[in-house]
Each structure stands twice: as structure tokens, then as C-alpha cells.
Amino acid sequence: MGRERAEALSPYQSKPMVSRPLFYTFSFLSFSCLCSCKQLQEMASQFNLESVREFLTREEDSIVFSLIERAKYPSNLPAYDPSYSTGGALRNYSLLDLFARETEAVQARAGRYRNPEEIPFFPKVLVLPLVPAVHSQVLHPASASVNASNAIWKMYFNRLPQFTAKGDDGRYALTAAADLVCLQALSRRINYGRFVAEAKFRDAPKDYTSAIRAEVDLSDSPFFSFPSYFLMFLQDRDALMRLLTSAAQEETVKSRVKKKAKVFGQDVTVNNISKNESSRPKYKVDPDVVVHLYGDWVIPLTKLVEVEYLLHRLD
Ligand SMILES: O=C(O)C(=O)C[C@]1(C(=O)O)C=C[C@@H](O)C=C1
User: In which pathway does it act (predicted)?
Assistant: First the structure.
């Protein structure tokens, strides 16, 4: 059993390495996780659309900062090329894949994924957490595991060239670490769509129930035929999408992230004397790229998670 656990934690080590600092670290993490479980239960009692939006607003800081941190390094493509890493049994994995798997395994042991806000990218790596389970006080059990993790992973690599310079400085481990921080922040934000959907459902249960039921009832309809069913299925998803969309809120989010990218990403100088005297300020990540990332990906994926969550809300 011990060996299995050690292998799950690190497929490359034949012997578990449990050092005293590691033991203390886990003890500390377990303690903080127990405290955060208490906080989770307290959060459940103050759960509403306003508190959910506050969470999304705070996550913007993490996302913008993490993109700025990743932009410190050039594209560093070998970090994503499986032929660069010597992964043994995992040779089809890139350095980033391996780094993400290993990091998630350690974090899983410390209880990160006991928190219903967190979803791993590699859920199949079996690791026994060192802390007790927490049952979400908020999410509906049948839809609690809805997530867009695969789409988030793909989206991130499509967007990478827009906020990193072309090039290779050999700092692949730092690059992979910065990537994982970005991916985890994006995942937390987008998969939080489950909580947003739950808050919206609780605010207007009748409206959402009729849109959700419309889809379920159709399959039993005597008029059911595959093409029309398929069409109506799409329409009902559309109805849910319309119900949960707030164009004004989306504009607010995009304006705010643009401002954050400008404020967090500018060079801070003493006495306003800048080395670069050109009048155009230079940002570490282009604020328009962050706006597009939100407008084209982050918000649409959050909405997909919301729709998917709601479709199972009455199961
Ligand atoms: O704040 C909300 O109401 C959300 O559903 C979140 C969010 C977003 O992703 O920021 C998504 C859909 C809405 O149209 C507005 C904003």
C-alpha cells in the first residue's frame, strides 16, 4: 500500500522519501486545510450571487498576475514537447504535463482537491489525501463535478503566443511552474461557473426549472423524432444561456480586467522618471490581450460550465 501511494505520488521514485521537513509541511497543510474546511462551511451560509461575483473579481487578480509572471519567460517551446523530457513510462508527456501531474499529486495529498472549488487537470493520478473529505454545502451533488478542464488546457495553449515573446531562454522548469499557476487560476475561475449557476438557480428556481425540464420532457414526447429533438435540445440550452447571461456584467468584468492589466503590468518608477521616455506606456502583458482572453474564452467557458451544471441541477 505504502509503495502504491509513493508511486502515485512520484512514478519515478522506487522508494518513498519522507523527510522530516516534508512531514511538517504536510502537517501544516493539513491543519490549514481543516481551517479552510471550516471557512468553506461558513461561506456556505453567506452564499449568494453577490458573494459569488466577489470571488470572480478576486480571481481576476490571480489570473492577471499569473499571466504577467508567465510573460517573464519567452515561449520556451521545449517545455511542451514530449521528446524533450525523459519521462520513462510517461515518455509521451511533456515537461509541463509531468510537472502538472506531480504538483497536483502533492497538492492532492495536502487536500487541495477536497475543496469543491478546485478541480485537478489529472484526476486519474490516484493519491490518498492526508485530510478528511469535505462535502460541499453548496453544490448540487449530481452536477458538482461538471468542469471544463480539457477545454481550459487547450485554450491556454492557443492563447500562449499572445502573451509571451517568441524565443528560448532554457528556463523550462520555471516556465512550466508559471504555466501551471496560470492554468490553475483559470480553472478555478471558469469551473466556479458551477457556484455561479447554483446561486442563479436559487434566485429564480421556477424560471430555471422550466428551462431545464423542457429538455428532459422532450425525449418522452410522442412527437419525438431525432432531428427535431436535437434542434429543440439546442434551443433549450440557448434558453438557459439567455437566462444566465448578463451583457452588462460581462462588460463590467472586461473593463475591470483591462484596468487591472494596466495597473499591475506597468513599470513602477521613482519620481515618475522612466527609462523609456516614449509617451506610450509599455505593459508587461497587453491589456487588450487580457480583455480578449476574457471576452472570447474565460467568460464563454464559464457560461458553458453554468449551462452544463444547470442541465443536471434536477437530477
Ligand atoms: O456574474 C454573472 O452573472 C456570471 O454569470 C458570470 C459571468 C462571467 O463569466 O463573468 C458569466 C455570464 C454573465 O453573462 C456575466 C458574467
Answer: Metabolic intermediate biosynthesis; prephenate biosynthesis; prephenate from chorismate: step 1/1
